[in-house]
Design goal:
Blueprint: H1 6-9, H2 13-23, H3 33-46, H4 48-51, H5 58-68, H6 71-89, H7 94-115, H8 117-126, H9 133-158, H10 160-171, H11 174-193, E1 196-202, E2 213-218, H12 226-249, H13 275-291, H14 302-311, H15 315-337
Antiparallel strand pairs: 1-2
Helix pairs in contact: 2-3, 5-8, 6-7, 11-15, 12-13, 12-14, 13-15
Length: 338
């Protein structure tokens, strides 16, 4: 071949380099543009069966077909010559006239295809090819990454992490444990001192398969009676007020100055009420009042003691257990702060 293909000659060297990379041509980096044109022309001509259907090389093979001629055109010309000879020898019988007319259609079609190979290649390049497994896997990966990014963004914007950390910080204190144990005791005490009364019934819903559901609400009229206030005040004094007073005045978290006896140098307490003293005082008072039934000369109603002792989970032993738990927590917290 005296020169490279005309279409390759019109391309820039960067385009030729991309074609070489695309087709897998080797050892092209050191070639100049004319040498690269010849190398690509020879390589693509030898591998036409592999790259002829590539859309990027459609113009090249179209130009090559116009330059060297198309095999389809040669086959079509031979078919036309044979058809002419058959027509000279054919008679005018009706059976023989039909045959060449039927053969004329594929011949004309072949001729049209032979004259326009570039149009056929461009048409083939516009036909969408089915996706390969690699394309499908890549699309799935992109979709997965997009969904994961969106979910992470929504989770971050929702503030769940900040709320979780704030809640954990608030609950990770001895005071929170004290409130939790008091709420646990009050949960069992409420039905005893503020009993539930029937209010109404939610009718059954056949569509959902539910049954009649009676609704009970606390009887708020009991707030006007001594049957509520007597045990409520007794529990408040023995479980909260008296232990808090003891923890305020006997506060072990109050530190003195290092090596000095002046009272003005006393450090501020870490907490207003010492949780350890609170727990010890609550345990002693609960054991004396609810465990031993001491009324302090009739100041405490025995009926209220019995009602509270019956209502609380585990009775006075449950209160002692709660006091022991808060005491252990307070000691552990003090050790961690040292």
């Amino acid at each position: 071949m005296s020169g490279a293909n005309s279409w390759l000659q019109r391309q820039r060297k960067t385009d030729l380099t991309e074609l070489a990379q695309h087709t897998g041509l080797k050892n092209y980096e050191s070639l100049k543009k004319p040498e690269l044109e010849l190398a690509l022309d020879e390589y693509l001509a030898e591998n036409s069966s592999v790259f002829s259907a590539d859309p990027k090389l459609a113009n090249y093979y179209s130009s090559r077909a116009r330059t060297v001629g198309s095999p389809v055109k040669k086959d079509a010309d031979g078919a036309i010559e044979k058809l002419k000879v058959a027509r000279r020898r054919a008679t005018k019988a009706a059976e023989e006239i039909v045959t060449p007319e039927s053969e004329d259609e594929p011949t004309s079609t072949s001729t049209a295809l032979a004259r326009t190979p570039g149009r056929a290649l461009s048409l083939a390049s516009r036909i969408p090819l089915p996706a390969t497994p690699a394309d499908v896997a890549e699309a799935v990966d992109r979709s997965t990454i997009a969904v994961r990014t969106r979910v992470a963004s929504l989770y971050k914007e929702s503030g769940i992490t900040e709320a979780t950390h704030a809640t954990r910080e608030s609950l990770s204190t001895v005071t929170s444990v004290l409130f939790a144990i008091s709420a646990f005791e009050l949960y069992f005490l409420r039905p005893e001192i503020l009993a539930d009364r029937y209010a109404f019934t939610i009718p059954a819903i056949s569509f959902l398969g539910t049954h009649d559901f009676p609704v009970f609400v606390p009887d708020m009229f009991l707030l006007l009676t001594s049957s509520f206030w007597s045990p409520a005040l007794l529990w408040a004094f023995t479980s909260t007020i008296l232990p808090s007073i003891a923890g305020y005045f006997i506060n072990l978290t109050v530190g003195s100055s290092h090596g000095s006896r002046r009272r003005s140098s006393i450090h501020a307490p870490d907490s207003v009420v010492d949780p350890l003293t609170f727990s010890i005082a609550k345990a002693l008072i609960s054991y004396v009042v609810y465990g031993q039934g001491v009324t302090f000369g009739g100041w405490i109603d025995e009926t209220s003691i019995a009602r509270i002792n019956t209502a609380l989970y585990g009775g006075y032993k449950g209160m002692l257990t709660g006091a022991a738990i808060t005491g252990i927590f307070s000691i552990y917290d003090a050790v961690l702060k040292k």
